[in-house]
Amino acid sequence: MPQKDPCQKQACAIQKCLQANKYMESMCEEVIRNMRRCCEVHRGNSTCCSGFKDSKPTENKTET
């Protein structure tokens, strides 16, 4: 029996949110962040992450 994709829940949440908000990404920033976090953890184990691209660069933390 194949294992469930560890980030499938987050990928489905993105689709649901986008559909509910007429595909306005700005309305789904939190679920997109959750997907990014999941992909960071499960990079090699999630087929959902293979097609997930960051549209925005990651935040750079700079110290002054």
Automatic annotation (TrEMBL):
One Pfam family in the UniProt entry: CMC4
Listed GO CC annotations: mitochondrial intermembrane space
Name this polypeptide is given: C-x(9)-C motif containing 4 homolog (S. cerevisiae)
Keyword annotations of the record: Disulfide bond, Mitochondrion
SS bond list: 7-38, 17-28, 39-49
Localization, UniProt: Mitochondrion
Classification via Gene3D superfamilies: CytochromE C oxidase copper chaperone (1.10.287.1130)
PANTHER family: CX9C MOTIF-CONTAINING PROTEIN 4
Family: Belongs to the CMC4 family.
PROSITE patterns referenced in this protein's UniProt entry, alphabetically: CHCH
